[in-house]
Design goal:
- With about 150 residues, the chain is mostly helical.
- It has helices at about 55-60, 60-65, 75-85, 90-105, 110-120, 120-130, 135-145; strands spanning about 15-20, 35, 40-45.
- It has a three-stranded antiparallel β-sheet, with no helix packed on it.
- The protein starts with 16 loop residues before the first strand and ends in a 5-residue tail after the last helix.
- The relative contact order is 0.07.
- The mean pLDDT is about 80.
């Protein structure tokens, strides 16, 4: 804790913590560790301070939704689930697919729009390399448009 005084007053853990749990795989996508209380409650702990591997909605929440046992009322969430059922996207590829093909869909038109929708992740990879071609300019013009919220 870097010498910081992090607990003051009564110890909230005394006689309450039954077990401290750490994932056996260092690439575990969920929490870094957790406490199991004497009442059977799990308390997840994130050890991240500053930049680190962020918790992933895709890795932690989507597997539960893909099981099909939970009713999904949100059209966006339904789209996200349906896309993962038929594609094996990596996290950023999935996010760009959703962003372009669902969130920005009504603004992306014509043949250039159809081209972008087929490979939306290319927008990220090109912008990341500072390559701004016709597709990237098109997307940037939509994002910059003050009439589009």
């Amino acid at each position: 804790m870097n010498g910081d005084k992090v607990l003051t007053g009564t110890n909230p853990f005394k006689d309450n913590i039954k077990e401290f749990i750490v994932p056996s795989d260092s690439s575990f996508a969920g929490v870094d560790s957790m406490f199991l209380t004497s009442k059977g409650q799990y308390i997840p702990i994130s050890s991240k301070s500053g930049k680190g591997a962020p918790a992933s909605f895709k890795e932690n929440v989507m597997p539960i939704l893909l099981q099909g046992t939970i009713s999904i009322k949100s059209p966006l969430l339904r789209f996200m689930v349906d896309i993962l059922k038929t594609n094996s996207f990596k996290n950023l590829e999935w996010l760009y697919f959703i962003g372009i093909n669902y969130i920005m869909d009504r603004y992306i038109k014509g043949s250039i729009g159809n081209n972008i929708k087929r490979n939306p992740y290319s927008i990220y990879t090109n912008l990341n390399k500072n390559i701004i071609g016709e597709n990237e300019e098109y997307i940037l013009s939509i994002v910059r448009n003050p009439k589009i919220k």
